[in-house]
Structure formats: structure tokens, C-alpha cells
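Self-study notes.
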Amino acid sequence: MAHEFAPGLFVRGFAPRLRLADYKLVAFDMDSTLINIECVDEIAAAAGRKAEVAAITEAAMRGEIADYKESLRRRLALLRGVPETALHEVYANHLQLNPGVERFVRACQAAGLKTLLVSGGFTFFSERVRGRLGLDFARANMLEVEDGALTGRLIDRPWGDIVDGAEKKRVVLEVCELMGIAPAQAIAVGDGANDLPMMGAVGLSIAYHPKPAVLEQAMLSITSGGMDRALEVFGA
């Protein structure tokens, strides 16, 4: 049972205050967590299909569509023919870091944590966000582009084709192993149902303005204010 530690800050299964330096890795979802948008929805807006795509996104994030990969393929198919320039427009005109993200990331980095972005979104955006925040690692899906337009498909990668909840968990656990740390020394931050597998595998799960299913399970939930509010449960 979660209790309200402070207004808009709910804790479950642990007693503040924690020490940030006791953790070695923090893994972040991207869309609606590090950034203010769902990129696939904004790309769809360029095709005049935002409402249709956003409805699928919302159902997937709430956990109402069990197969995340299938939900993403359905959305991607609707993006076929969208010019590649639309990606640049979304990044320049719509994508912003969420409040408190930079402060929280800097605090983690200052405490010696490695930083990982693991997203069911797209490398076009994840690599730019990674660079902007100085994150150590990133994994996301790569959009296929032919003749300056999206094909509605993804490019196969050595690890597979789509980052879903299972892949997010696998990446987090793999990075823990490569770092020589226990999963209990990792933090995972997300907002949607496909973040639950990685959030359940680590020592501390943080939900940022989460969907109901995530609010019910996360150890720390931020329902008002910026991501830096997470720092309130850590000591100096």
C-alpha cells in the first residue's frame, strides 16, 4: 500500500531516506518520461492521423493492448509516406525535456550513477536526447526511411526489431551484468505499462506522472511536479 510521503509524492515498500550513491545505474524511459511527448503521436500529426495513432498509444500505455510490438506495428503502418523532414519538425517544435529532468539526471551523474535510456520510441529522438543529457547508453527502435519518407517499418538490429517491455528489462539486466552490479543497485524510471517489467526487476522503481497500472506498482510515484521531486526521498 502506497502512502503519501509529501503532496503528490507516493512511496511503497521502502522508508525514505535513501542514499543515491548506493545505486550504480539509472534507466529511463523516454516518451512522456524524459520528454513531454509521445514521438509517434507527433509524427502521426504530420500525416493527419494523430487521433488514430494516439488512441492506440494510450491504450498500449495503459496496458489495454497486451502485445506492445503489435501496437507499435499498427501505429507505424499509419506513418507510411510521412516525409523524414517531419521528424526534424517534431524535434525542433514539439519535443521538450520534462520539468526537473535535467536536475535529476545531473544529481544521478554527480552521485556516480551510469545512465541508460531505453525506449520503445525511435533512435532519431533518443540519440538527440542522449546527447543533450550526456547519458551513457541508449537503446531504441530505428525507423526505416526510403527516398526521404518513412516506410512504416523498422530496421532490424542485432538484438531484434522492437524495444518492448521485455526488451527494456533485458537491456537493464544486461547492463547491470556488464557493470558487475546487482539489479538491486539499479533504478528504473517510467510512466507506462511497457515500463513495468524493468521497474519490477530493479532495486527502486520511480513512476513519473504514471498511468494507473504503474501507479499501483511503483515504489515511488510522482503525481505532481517535476522529476527532480524524486530527490526528496534521498538524503544528502
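Second protein, same conventions, sequence then structure:
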Amino acid sequence: MEISPYTFSSQTITACSTTGYRIDRVQKVGEAYMSPGSVTEILHFYVAEYSEDMTTGGGGGLEEEQENIEVIELPFVRALDMVESGEIRDAKTIMLLQYAQIQGLLKVKSKPLHILIAGPYRSGTNDDHVLIEKNVNYMNEIALQVYEAGHMPVLGEWYALPLIATAGSTALGDETFNKIFHPSSIRLLDYCNAVLRVGGPSQGADEMVRVAKEKGLLIYERLDELPLV
């Protein structure tokens, strides 16, 4: 039986067979054949929490077992990046890292994102100003929640509507309105990291999502999908 050499903590991953920690509450999370059809070896995967007060030594292996193991500690995000770049190629390590990521054992924090809130503005309103205002207020409420989650939200309407008024638009959908409303939001995407699609049907919002995908931006459909900051 082989146990992966990676033990997980809330902040780091300690890479060594003898970790230098006395751990308890070890949990088995699975087992797998690495090369079924070629070898019968089966690997058993375990995870356990540890803290500094569980330290028993420097780790690095047992001299009497002729072990010569280098101890390396990495931030979890760095380890995931090394999997993506190919620096980590060991299958059992990759599987355990992905297990920790999927199960949320280690909360990966990201830098704050600049997120465009894309939702219906005129759609379904028949250009009723009360209903349009209701749509905008809804997106503003979502934007506040995004802000409280640590990110920086933006609505295309925040940029477009003052510009449209200054440019002399006199009615929804007139030439001046159409020249600025959606084009300004498309331009705004160049300064965003992500789009959060909210609300009901909207061709304009769907267009924002389509363009954002072409630009390689992150797309979210729920607030709980946003990364931790």
C-alpha cells in the first residue's frame, strides 16, 4: 500500500513521506489503480489536518530506512498552478490536490475581480420607465453583494446612461442611445475580468456574455460561484 506523500493543511501542502508532524483523524478518501491492465498495484489516498503544535521534527525521512527526502512547503494555489503548468506530474499528487480543490478542503482565495453585471435593462418592459428602473435597481442590489464579497462590480448602465444624456438623446432607442448603450458596454469588457449574468431574458446581456467568452473572461451565473477574496 502506498500513501501519497502530500499532507494538507488549511494554508499549505507539506511534500514529504515523513512529514515531521504527528497527525490524527486520518481520513481515507479513495483508492485507484494507476495503470490497470499493466500492474496490480493499487494506491490508497488519505488526507488529514495538521497544525504547528503537532510538529515532531524537521521531516525528510528516516535515516534508518535510508530515506533522503526533501521537505517542500507550497501555498495551495501555487501547487495547483504547478499542476496546470506540468511542474507536478505525479498522478497521486494531482488526484489529491484536485480532491482537496473539489471538496473545498482548502479555501482558495483570489485577487478581487472587476465584474460586469449583465442583466435585462429594457427587455420585457415595453419601455415602461418604472419597470426599467426596477431592472436597474435589481442589478444595483446584485452589484452591492458583489462589492461586499470583496470584488469591484460595474454596470454598463453606470457608464452608458450619463453619456447618452450628455450626448443629447431624447428617447429610448433613438440613434444617439443606440450609438452608445451597448457599444460602451462592449468597450467596458476590455477593463473587466469577469461577467456575472443575472436576471431574466435579455439579448443585450447575452451578447455581453458571448463577447466576454471571446475575450477569455470568466463567466458566472450565481453569486455563490464568485471566488473568495
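Instructor comment on the second fold: DSSP finds six helices and ten strands in the chain.
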